[in-house]
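pasting for ref
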Amino acid sequence: MFSVDSLDWKERGVESEINQVLNHKHLGKGSIILFHNDAKYTPDALGTIIQGLKNKGFEIVPVSELIYKENYEMDNEGRQKLVTPQI
């Protein structure tokens, strides 16, 4: 799943897409950002988005580094939450 939707499919323009991602309420450590491969404005917005994320202290990593493979549950918004095993 993803935690930040770029809304690129709505085709609202480059600035709208940049603002949607960089100011998203769920943007944080471990965020997975959704982009679509056929979105009209994403190619023009992506460089600014990546630089903006780096300026905020984020690192771009493969999604495989962000996915829990065990001891997790999904919340009502589709986000993984690590579950501490009960002893």
